DNA sequence: CAGGACTACTGTATCGTTACAGATTTATCG
DNA sequence: CGATAAATCTGTAACGATACAGTAGTCCTG
């Protein structure tokens, strides 16, 4: 009654390093194939065998060798976060990375950060990933209405998700912030405060959310009967110094606005500086509503009405969506839009 | 004269996918081994052959299969950035990641972000990397004087670099900010402004740079003859709300300081809030010097004297150091200390 | 001119895993 | 009872790269 000790070639005793399938095979007396199949719960393996294998695997802390799996199956278990080296102001990357890794922690996926210089080709990192099979899924941001990265990834069938939407008739997973709603509500807020001449610090025109934010802004102007003041092509991708100088000029002109909608938190900082350089006072000469990814403005300039965009949650949504896409869930079910959170009063705590 | 068309087994025509060594071998008529060795410039391959191989490889865009290399050699070509999900305030991660990837871009290394929950075991991700051979090198931060991660990595011989120093008699690569100098200069600055009763918002005591910053602070007090005001164990790891409330209390007490040294930019924000909650005015009732990782404070509160810690540069230094360590350079040559940059006046531009 | 040394290549085995095509045993059926 | 099916298990080959141990030539050397 000592088990089925057949006299098979009896795979040579596995070495001393980290356990592999061979180790388990040796310990259980089973074949390597059997162990492999048992661990992935294949239907042609006996229930008791599976149990035994699982037990041993757990005991010795078996973890599949990623290189082995990847070489054999092509599955990398990698999600690639593609980002511009430049998209850095106000650190949107940090909470994004945190959010993504929170989700990936419960999966076999690793997060690889793949940067590119905005001055160069945004397609380069995508091509690299496609050519080398570097990842099972990709997360991209700063999407454009007709985004060549989306086109390429779709054509080549590599799962991905975008932070931001597109307008190319391609159904794909995305997560986005409702910038239309944000701008609309911002206008409402300003008008309620008696402001009538509003300016918008908008995204650069080539990005998709430019038109979203503009649309919300304009719809707000119509619904709440306010007027637009032009900021002459200055947008959130300009440097803070440029924004400040331009806004100082605007505030000194006859055309000075009395209400400001800022599409970015760091932009808001420059706007405040410009306003003050023009000897105006925030809350008195003008009010401002800004989209923010953190609490700083609220702490330092509580006069500013802030609407919070939770980037960490965005990271989580994006991660869930890529994985869903990889798992074959239909793209339609992997799209989400987050609403701006009005930030009331002051005291909200910041973690750590 | 059609080359040496021997009648070898002539490896079966390589498939249509991405090129491998076999592809090049087929195209050049050489053996796979020869191609492999030629590409790594081995001494036993003819000069002309190397040239030919390199040319073909370049032409068809050959890139070694990472899984193949990793499986055979154990080399992962991965650098792992280990970070706390919580170390997030004021987004130190963003510029860090950018700095690292800037350096890695010129190498075969990929950056994998490996997070852990600070509430759990900081050793867990290190163990994971060691057990699974997930990376060739590791970057860790928030170092302690006797850091178990450093001990483990050293013992197991896995190259790493720390952001911050240790005090365990182990020589290892590091990059650090000179917090001693920062605090010392901060005291000098405050005393020059006529301040005499100084408080320090310090790092949590278990981290190495706690004692550095304290030492600099105390040396400054001695040299410039000022007094310390205790902040009762409040440190930069407390929440902003806690810091603000504690500081408000302190500012209302008889023991109120007139000079503040803030060890973190986000902490400074809370201190300002606390000070103002106590009806005091910055620049009048007290002056403040803060270490900052970005320009925000300078834009919003120019009264604060800021010393800039360039995290992006830190990322670059760290990346260079791990790679150096991997390449076998002696640890002594892979240590660097960055000096605080006094930020003069206002107008410095922020990129993008 | 045998034999040593050197140059320039090459085949085989192997890393850990999985797809695939069996193989063995037991149960079922007419 | 022979045959067929079902249930379990297994060996081989392959993914792409490299370490290692050769194999041919060529050129000396004595």
Automatic annotation (TrEMBL), chains A, B:
UniProt-recorded name of the protein: LacI family transcriptional regulator
Citing just one GO molecular function, the answer is:
transcription cis-regulatory region binding
Q: Which PANTHER family match?
A: ALANINE RACEMASE, LACI-RELATED TRANSCRIPTIONAL REPRESSOR
Query: Highest taxon of the source?
Result: Bacteria
Q: Which organism is it from?
A: Ensifer adhaerens (Sinorhizobium morelense)
Q: Does the record bear Transit peptide in its keywords?
A: no
SUPFAM superfamilies, from UniProt? lambda repressor-like DNA-binding domains, Periplasmic binding protein-like I
Instruction: Report the SMART domains cross-referenced here.
Output: HTH_LACI
Keyword Disulfide bond among record annotations: no
Annotated keywords: DNA-binding, Transcription, Transcription regulation
The record's region (Disordered) falls at 1-20
PROSITE patterns per the record? HTH_LACI_2
Enumerate the spans annotated as HTH lacI-type domain. 19-73
């Amino acid at each position: 009654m000592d088990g089925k000790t057949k006299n098979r070639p009896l795979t040579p005793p596995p070495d001393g390093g980290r356990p592999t399938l061979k180790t388990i095979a040796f310990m259980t007396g089973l074949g390597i194939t059997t162990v492999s199949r048992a661990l992935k719960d294949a239907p042609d393996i006996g229930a008791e065998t599976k149990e035994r294998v699982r037990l041993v695997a757990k005991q010795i802390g078996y973890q599949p060798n990623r290189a082995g799996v990847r070489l054999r199956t092509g599955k990398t278990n990698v999600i690639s976060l593609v980002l511009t080296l430049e998209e850095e102001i106000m650190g949107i990357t940090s909470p994004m990375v945190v959010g993504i890794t929170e989700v990936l922690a419960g999966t076999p996926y690793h997060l690889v950060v793949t940067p590119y210089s905005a001055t160069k080709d945004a397609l380069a990192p995508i091509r690299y990933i496609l050519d080398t099979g570097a990842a099972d899924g990709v997360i991209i941001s700063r999407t454009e209405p007709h985004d060549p990265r989306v086109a390429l990834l779709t054509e080549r069938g590599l799962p991905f998700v975008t932070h931001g939407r597109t307008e190319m008739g391609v159904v794909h997973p995305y997560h986005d912030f409702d910038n239309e709603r944000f701008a609309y509500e911002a206008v409402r807020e300003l008008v309620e405060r008696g402001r009538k001449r509003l300016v918008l610090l908008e995204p650069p025109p080539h990005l998709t959310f430019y038109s979203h934010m503009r649309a919300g802004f304009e719809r707000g102007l119509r619904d709440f009967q306010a007027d637009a003041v032009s900021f002459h092509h200055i947008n959130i991708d300009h440097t803070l110094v440029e924004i400040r100088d331009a806004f100082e000029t605007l505030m000194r002109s006859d055309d000075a606005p009395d209400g400001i909608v800022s599409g970015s938190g760091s932009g808001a900082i420059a706007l405040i500086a410009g306003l003050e350089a023009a000897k105006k006072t925030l809350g008195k000469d003008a009010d401002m509503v800004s989209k923010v990814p953190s609490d700083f403005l609220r702490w330092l300039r509580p006069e500013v009405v802030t609407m919070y965009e939770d980037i960490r949650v965005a990271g989580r949504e994006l991660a869930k969506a890529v994985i869903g896409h990889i798992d074959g869930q239909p793209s339609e079910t992997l799209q989400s839009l987050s609403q701006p959170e009005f930030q009331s009063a002051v005291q909200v705590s910041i973690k750590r």
